[in-house]
Amino acid sequence: MPNIIFQTPFLQLKSRRALLTAGAILALLALVAIAALNTTATPVSPIQIQIQGWVNNLKDEPLTAARHNAQRNLEAAGENAVPQLLVALRSNNPTQRRNAADVLSYIASPQATDALLQAMRNDPVPAVRRNAAYALGEIQDARALNELQKTAVADTSASVRGAAADSLARVRAVFAKRAGVNEQTIGAYAAALTQPETVYLTAKRDVWVSHDGGKTWRVLANALPSQATALAVSPTNAQELYSGVEGLGLFKSVDGGATWSAINDGLTLTPGARETIAALAIDPANANIVYAARGVWVGTNAVQYFPIGLARSVDGGATWTALNASVTDARDGITQLAFRNGQLYALAGNRVLTLITPQ
């Protein structure tokens, strides 16, 4: 009897544990089932399914009917298609990346700017970089201006450089229209690195300033002594500008273009000559180091441009030193300068020059 009385509670306890364990498992299974039910209860919208199908058709290398219809439908979908197109822009399929960038140029959504900048900088396929550069010109986001300028000078592919240059030209035309300026009078324009929404534009002697990415502008009338030929904004100070001025060398502003001072110490200017500053570049690692590509226009009826060479300042333009660089032998002379990944590049005609800078 004692044994029976003793064993009964033990068996009851064991049964209760089994029931509790089974109950816990059933409860857990129920929760999983409810979670799964909830997950499937939120269906993907029909338009998202359609967009995914169209994006998948962008993998077709030839312009098939399916790809043509997909591109047309994605363009019509507009902003709704952008998120999935941005995923396609990171695809392992280069054809899909190229075509995704192409469609994004038609949609022209600012939400694609960062992804297109990444593609333009880093994609290994030139056709993808080219389409990304073109799309950025359609979007006309001021945040892209500095990278477009670098790409127009330093990309290894001529087609990519050309697409970036075309985009910059389209943006310039839009800025001129919004500012109410004759595009033919524009000497240069540049965006601030620290404040990408701040953009400067020069037209004749006027300096135009925008603080909303080029949407609206205000004019600083007759701020410059002559027509600007090049413009650069300090990478650390949006109020500090450098400008090449036709026939007068280099000028600097520390108040956002309102006033300018000549900074030609160390430069030899030819009296009576149409000396010009073709390009400017500021070292992003040290804003006091500035490079200027110089040249001179000679002749009256048949005017010809002759490159003089490079000048360098290490004190924010206070003094300049002429550099004995081989680029003075470039047939067409330097027309643009840009730093990219710490390296200074120049564009001379269709040639990209890698410049060895003094330490």
**Shape descriptor:** elongated
Question: How much helical structure, as a percent, in the residues?
Answer: 25-40%
Structural class: alpha+beta
Any idea what the radius of gyration is?
A: 31 Å
Description:
The protein is α+β, with helices and mostly antiparallel strands. Helices cover 39% and strands 24% of the residues. It folds into 3 domains: 1-42; 46-139, Leucine-rich Repeat Variant (Alpha Horseshoe), CATH 1.25.10; 185-355, Methylamine Dehydrogenase, Chain H, CATH 2.130.10.10. The protein has 9 helices and 15 strands. The strands form 4 sheets. A 4-stranded antiparallel β-sheet has the order 1-2-3-4, with helices on one face. Strands 5-6-7-8 form a 4-stranded antiparallel β-sheet, with no helix packed on it. Strands 9-10-11-12 form a 4-stranded antiparallel β-sheet, with no helix packed on it. The protein is elongated and about 70 Å long. The relative contact order is 0.06. The model is unreliable at 1-43 and 326-330 (pLDDT under 50).
